[in-house]
Amino acid sequence: MKLSKAIEGFLLAKQADSLSPSTAQIYKWGLDKLVDYLHDPEVDTITTDDLRRWFQFLRTEYKPQGIRAKERLAPASLQNFWRALKSFYTWGESELGLKRQDNIRRPAGESPVTVPLTQDEIRKLLHCAEYLTTKGGKRPSYTRRVPPQGRAMSRCCS
To answer: What is the DSSP letter of 1?
Structure first.
């Protein structure tokens, strides 16, 4: 069976199992890159070395199309491709009897830097939780205090 056909079956199974549409899209995007790189081989002929070369290509040579065409893939994208590959082989092992070839290490990622909120940002958040500004319509905008039981930090201030 060609890799592209196996990926179609994998994505169909994952969508039937309620995989989120955005995750399915990410899996498809990554696995389509594998099909292109390997020229759609028979799925049972793919080796671990093929997958290692693919990740090396993604890390060093591949450039995404569109807005970020001059940049390399972000570490998070490489990790998403790795997850898609792991999930594909887990499915392929049980559904197609594939021998796992995905024993490659997870690509290293950079830990995101958490920047603490400033005191002014905290004040604005607390203000948003306590006051509601109504805008638009035929009436002029106005601000009112929200009772404690109606407050939520999910409101957004501008």
So the answer is: -
Q: What is the pLDDT of residue 70?
A: 63
Instruction: Give backbone dihedrals phi and psi of 80, rounded to 5 degrees, phi first.
Output: -65, -40
Backbone angles phi, psi at 103, to 5 degrees: -85, 60
Identify the domain containing residue 135 by its residue range: 119-150
Closest CA to 101 of 44, 32, 155: 44
State how far the Cα of 64 lies from the Cα of 83, in Å rounded to an integer. 19
Same domain, 15 and 89: yes
What residues pair up with 132 in beta bridges, in sequence order?
144
Is 0.85 surpassed by the pTM of this model?
no
Phi, psi of 47, rounded to the nearest 5 degrees: -110, 165
Q: Are residues 90 and 24 in the same domain?
A: yes
pLDDT, tens digit, 9 for 90 and up, residues 81-131: 999 999 999 999 999 998 888 788 887 766 567 788 899 988 887 777 777
Query: CB 40: neighbour CB atoms within 10 A?
Result: 14
For residue 105, is it within any domain? Answer: no
